[in-house]
Amino acid sequence: MALRGQSGRLxxxxxxxxxxxxxxxxxxxxxxDDRIVDFNCQSNPNFPQYSVSSASAGQxxxxxNSPSLELAATYRxxxxxxxxxxxxxxxxxxxxx
Length: 97
Fold this sequence. Notes:
This protein is mainly beta. The chain is 0% helix and 34% strand. It has strands at 8-10, 24-27, 35-39, 42-43, 50-53, 61-64, 73-78, 85-89.
């Protein structure tokens, strides 16, 4: 969970031997809005709202720098076939009438 103005972190760890370079994150996989947010655990300059963090081999966390309604989606992380894990980010906003 992240509060307004804070970053949110989605964790991804694989038991695959080697560096975190084999992990990638996708947004809205299996849809027409499918986007590769990062590949080989490297931030994608086309998506500055995301960054990645790797504390150890086999780990590549997706950091959402400023969660917003536009970033609410289903995210998938994994090794080259991206079949490891599925995470859903739900953003709850405030409305003023």
